[in-house]
Amino acid sequence: MYQRILVPLDGSRLSEQVLPWTRALGRAFGSRIELLRIVPGHLQGRQEPGGGLNLHTQALEYLNRMKASLGNLDVSVSCLVEEHGPAACISREARKEPDTLVAISTHGRMGIGRWVMGSVMDQVLRTSGKPMLVVRPGPGHGPRHGTEGNNAPEAEVAIKSIIMPLDGSSVSENQISPHVVALAKNLDLEVVLLMVPYEHEQAASQNYLEKVNERLSSQGVSSVRELVRKGRPGDAIVAVAQETEASMVAITTHGRSGVRRLIRRDGEALMWGSIADRVVRHCERPVLMVRPPDPEPA
Known about the structure:
Layout: E1 4-9, H1 13-16, H2 19-29, E2 32-39, H3 55-69, E3 77-83, H4 86-95, E4 100-105, E5 109-110, E6 113-114, H5 117-128, E7 132-135, E8 161-165, H6 170-187, E9 190-195, H7 202-218, E10 224-228, H8 233-243, E11 247-252, E12 262-265, E13 268-271, H9 272-282, E14 287-290
Parallel strand pairs: 1-2, 1-4, 2-3, 4-7, 8-9, 8-11, 9-10, 11-14
Antiparallel strand pairs: 5-6, 7-14, 12-13
């Protein structure tokens, strides 16, 4: 499914926390990995004080160090330095090849400014049409001072389960299922089906999850369990992820309506897209986000 994994890096330790996950997925899927560093266009040819290397050359050397730190994966790893705005550049590169997964850290620097998760990530999801693996750095991975790229990525990551939140619609199930099936089969993962319904929808939700379980099993997924939780959807998804050892979450950004599902909890209107955003912002596990294509105009 993921023939290429596009990995934007900005030279910070925070952004590099996505590399162990990139390595695990690249090995499991045999994906080609492309490391991307973006240099602001107006600074690309500028030299360091004292006549040192220009920023483009520095960026390429940094990417080559990160490539070496990935080790021997038996897959192709390439390095690319581009210029201009991060969101537009990442989206443009992602669209160049089908079956591309964008793997990105939720924090970091982009060029000379801060990486703004709510803008860069949202724009890339919206304009690239590609799935995005979002990794939130753990404690102790603050910004690096001094020379960029001195430290190799962390040791191998452990992934045992993938949590699949659903809203009961064919839209969310059909968009996320192919990714969950592929990840579960290639990484030998348990799939945790999760719904957070209204109180009066509890029984119907359990029945629906049993049918999804059957559909996943028929596609070769060997281990599936079902959970129905109460409470606010975003908080419940994060809680399940936190209590499930070595897990990741796979979620679609749109819900039951085909555009965005509106859910009400305690009198508050919650968009399914805002639930996905809350999961990304608060979950300490990696989150795979899939944005369905926009509906055709009537």
